[in-house]
Amino acid sequence: MSRIKAAITGVGAYLPSYVLNNDELSRMVDTTDEWIMQRIGIRERRILKEKGKATSYMGGKAVKDLLEKTGTNPLDIQILICATVTGDMHFPATGNLISDKAGLANAFSFDVGAACSGFLFALETGRRFIESGAYNKVIVVGADMMSSIVNYEDRTTCPLFGDAAAAVLLEPTSGSNGIIDSILAVDGSGAKHLHMYAGGSLHPASHATIDARQHFIFQEGQAVFKMAVSKMSDVSVDIMKRNNLSHEDIRFLVPHQANMRIIEATARRMGISRDQVMINIDKFGNTTAATIPLCLWDYEQQMKKGDNIILASFGAGFTWGSIYLKWAYNQK
User: Fold this and answer.
1) Is the per-residue pLDDT at 221 higher than 90?
2) Interatomic CA distance for residues 58 and 215, integer angstroms
């Protein structure tokens, strides 16, 4: 008897309507379209502008899109896992708010915080719930409103990030498709290179932290870049080796969309061509936990049942990882 595997059976997404392009950004901070495109590869990003709306709003919209596309009754969903670092509040969990907005009255939900690797960590968690045999409908959503923690006076970070949410439905399968393998890792010593200094229990919000502008993303770009190139490339190659995959076997690499040079370096290490890599960083920027599922949504029509897909990420923490799956359906 084949063991139960977890398969992605649908993808949904939400993108804010406001487009912040490089020309507008260059009027806000000392940068240019040429500088951003050469060093990062981002031309525009989406920003959630509406007052009173935040990460859970986008997550709720993405989940509703997923439910509608798959014809799934919201009352049949048993678990929702939200990957985010920009929760609406410290508590309750943003996953709880998303479940309420999407009508998931029978699901329990919680958040996973692993920055740009958050979706992979949450997907692995959802996979294990499915494989236990106790659950058969799990939603994993990556959602981040990065504009809420970006300093638009910092030219080194403000061009990087956008807002978005995307969600996948996990269901059991006993066939050859579904999630097959994963490698996940962390190195907490990297926290000093990429973090938000204030707002937690170590440095609670105060007049001093606000005046010092310590509630925004801080990044030492060169240190993060070097580590990201190394770790995301290594873990992608490692998962290929563990599963006896050659570059010809891979239909798509789905990399975290942080920087085009990191994406290109990972593809070179894997020996794959440009048309084997999902890329939408130019349109959406780095949406943190949403980048990988947003790629799956963007490329859904191009994937076929049985395709070998490798997901790969690197993020603050440091966190990194890779998941190998066989795509489980043909889009109608």
Assistant:
1) no
2) 22
Q: Where are the domains of the chain?
A: 5-175, 180-326
The answer regarding whether domain 5-175 maps to CATH 1.10.260.40 reads no
How far, in Å, CA of 95 to CA of 244, rounded?
A: 37
Tokens of 11: 């993808």
Of the residues 96, 177, 259, 286, which is catalytic? 286
Q: Is residue 180 over pLDDT 80?
A: yes
CATH for the stretch 180-326: 3.40.47.10
Q: Which of 256, 259, 295, 308 is catalytic?
A: 256
90 catalytic? Reply is no
Average pLDDT, the chain: 95
Tell me how far apart the 2 most distant CA atoms of the chain are, in Å. 62
Angle between helices 94-102 and 55-70 (to 10 degrees): 40
> In whole angstroms, what separates CA 280 from the centre of its chain?
12
Say whether 180-326 and 5-175 share the same fold. yes
Residue 73 vs residue 153, higher pLDDT: 73
| Residue 286 a catalytic site member | yes
pLDDT at 308: 98
- For the entire predicted model, the pTM comes to 0.96
Q: Is the pLDDT of residue 7 over 60?
A: yes
Catalytic annotation, pick one of 22, 82, 96, 116: 116
330 noted as active-site residue:
no
